[in-house]
Amino acid sequence: MGNNNSLITYKVTVNRDDSDRIRLIKKFSNDFLYKADKIHREIGLSSGKNNVPDFCSELAVLENSIDTTVDIPKELVSPAREIVQSLWSYYKVVANFKNSDSGRYAVNFESSKQEVVNLSRNYSDILRNYIHAE
After folding, report:
1. What is the rounded distance in angstroms from the CA atom of residue 106 to the CA atom of residue 99?
2. Among residues 44, 27, 36, 31, which one has the least CA distance to residue 7?
3. Eight-state DSSP code of residue 3
4. Model pLDDT, residue 21
5. Which residue, of 60, 77, 119, 126, is most buried by count of CB atoms within 10 Å of its CB?
């Protein structure tokens, strides 16, 4: 389990008696949430800096991983895409901080930051329910 603002809210353990499909889903989910969490933290650390790093390639790779991983259940595809879209929005808020007034930026920053966390928790809940239903 991660801290309160960590995206890794449900770390799944691969068990010997898991089917190959469940193992793949668990591995994808762990990798996806780990990478999303890393990008999320790095974007947050870039806030207020004059030169915000370019996260476009990392976000594109993360988004592409959803489409290129076979056997991801449809129940997880949409929530994963929502996390990536939310990370894009968070990145845009941080990248455009110079063009915003400070009060509005602070509100947009916190709301974008928290939206990613909330969506990842939703993903984790859906994942947990899917695994336990299998």
Report:
1. 13
2. 36
3. -
4. 85
5. 119
